[in-house]
Amino acid sequence: MNFPIAFHPIYKHPLPDGHRFPMIKYELLPQQLLLEGTALQTDFFEPSKLCSDIDVLRVHTLEYLENLKALNLDRKAARKLGFPLSTQLVKRELRIAQGTIDGSIKAFKHGIAMNIAGGTHHAYSNHGEAFCLLNDQAIAARYLQHHQLAEKILIVDLDVHQGNGTAQIFQNDDTVFTFSMHGASNYPFKKEVSDLDIALPDHTDDNSYLKELHHILPDLIAQEKPDFIFYLCGVDVLATDKLGRLGLSLKGCKERDEYALSAFAKARTQKNNRIPVQCSMGGGYSPEIKLIIEAHANTFRVARDIFN
Question: What CATH superfamily is the domain 5-307?
Answer without folding.
Answer: Histone deacetylase domain (3.40.800.20)
